[in-house]
Every structure is written in structure tokens, then in C-alpha cells.
Amino acid sequence: MIQGTYYKEWSRMLGRDMEFKVYGHAGTPVLALPARGGRFYDWENNGMPDAIAPLLNEGKVQLFCADSIDAESLLAGDTAPRRRAEMQEKYFNYLTSELAPRILTLNGAKKDTLLWAVGVDTGAYQAVNCCLRRPEVFAGAIGLSGLYDVSRFLGNAADDLVLRNAPLAYLAEDGLVDKKLLAKAEENALLLCAGQGSYEGDALVDTQAMADALTDCGLPVHLEVWGSDVSHDWYWWGKELNLFAARVFG
């Protein structure tokens, strides 16, 4: 089993300590986001670092598994939508303005190095949102069984903060993301995948919608829809990550 290094560091953005674990010693820095309500250790507990062990051991990838605050943002159904959106925006800023620079420092990255992001379930949404909104920080994203329609969590995108965190909505608008910069991305800069098996219904619909929204904007996206045996679980996410990581970082 791949061993990780544990960190617990203060986030000024969130006003609390945030935990994360690092796997590998060198290579492309990759921010990894958990499924909804998940924790930073879920990736390790479900064998995801092991799924890309050769890349980690060869120094081609360094994986940084972040924590979530979903209970206060996406899943905080007992609080007002605006409050949920505010917490999601704070989390986005934590990932892109605090954790991302810290990752580059720990990685020993050269100047102008860009990160990648990868996530599963709502973590796929977080990864893609980071990449689309901050293409000067993130080179690309891998979204596995993503839930990209955040209206089910945050409500109507008419609210400016919700819109800022709703990729299916903001891609249809002008001026909210730098589409010219995004259009210059590599062909495999955004890789989306979903299965057609158990509990993949929402993810399959959302993943297709996300791919269509990107295509409509002229942005590069690689979409794969796997078979009816491919369910919404870590077993399949490990197989998908193994394939896509080898393609991008191998």
C-alpha cells in the first residue's frame, strides 16, 4: 500500500485547520477531491493511490488529497441557499488560493508549474470548477462520475454566488470565465467519465451535460461513457483513474 504524509494546516480563508495527505515524492502535482461529504482519507481508504502506484513510485505524479466542508456548503440543506453558496465560494478560494500554492511549494515545483485536479462524485465538480475558473493555476481536470448540476445543492443560479459555482450555468454566460484561455488547453485537459450502472443515473446525465456545455463553448473535452456494469463506487473510480492518469501523466 502506498504510504502518505499527513498535514494539518491553518486556513485563513476558512478560519480553521484543514487536513490533507500527500502521496508520491515528485512529478505533476495533482489535487484530489473526495465524494460528497467525504474526507481527505477516503482516497487512501479506497485504494486510489494504489490505483496509480507506478506513476507515484516513478515520480511522475504527486497526489494531494484534500478535505471537504460539504456539510456546511453543498449538503447544508437546513441553511439558506445564500449561506451554502458563500461557504462553497470560501472552499473554492481555499483550494485555489491557499492549498494550490502550498501544493506547489511541497512539490518543489518550478516557476509557472500548473496543477491538475481530479475528483469523484461532487469532488469531480470541485475539480472541474477549479480548472474552469482558474486556468492560470490548473492545467486540467479529471472528473469521475461527476455531479455538475449544483442547483440540486445550492439552488437557483440567479444568485451571483451560486452562478459563480455553477459550471453548467456560467459556461452559458459571457465574461464569467476566460474562455479564450480555456480554449488553448490541451486536447485531454478535461477528461470526464461516467458509467451506466447502479447509482450512476444523475452522474451520467450531468457528465453528458457538462461535456455538451464545454463543446458548445468550443472548449476541449474528452468524454467516456463506460458500460452498464460500471457503478457509482470507488472500485470503478480506481479503474478509471488508472487509465486516465496513465494517459495524461504516464
Q: What's the helix and strand layout?
A:
Layout: E1 5-11, E2 16-23, E3 28-33, H1 42-45, H2 48-51, H3 53-57, E4 61-66, H4 81-107, E5 115-120, H5 122-133, E6 138-144, H6 151-154, H7 160-164, H8 167-170, H9 179-183, E7 190-194, H10 201-216, E8 222-225, H11 234-249
Parallel strand pairs: 3-4, 3-5, 5-6, 6-7, 7-8
Antiparallel strand pairs: 1-2, 2-4
Structural commentary:
The protein is 41% helix and 20% strand. It has helices at residues 42-45, 48-51, 53-57, 81-107, 122-133, 151-154, 160-164, 167-170, 179-183, 201-216, 234-249; strands at 5-11, 16-23, 28-33, 61-66, 115-120, 138-144, 190-194, 222-225. Strands 1-2-4-3-5-6-7-8 form an 8-stranded mixed beta sheet, sandwiched between helices. The longest helix is centred in the middle third of the chain and has 27 residues, at 81-107.
Determine Rg (CA atoms, Å). Answer: 17 Å
Number of helices: 11
Strands of the widest sheet, in order across it, are 1-2-4-3-5-6-7-8
Described by strand count, sense and barrel closure, the largest sheet is:
8 strands, mixed
The percentage helix is 40-55%
Low-confidence stretches: none
Q: Look at the structure and give the mean pLDDT.
A: 95
Note the beta-strand portion: 15-25%
CA-CA gap between termini: 20 Å
User: What is the general shape?
Assistant: globular
Would you tell me the structural class of the helices and strands?
A: alpha/beta
Which descriptors apply to this entry?
globular; 8 strands; 11 helices; 250 residues; eight-stranded mixed β-sheet
Summarize the structure.
The chain is α/β, with parallel strands linked by helices. It contains 11 helices and 8 strands.
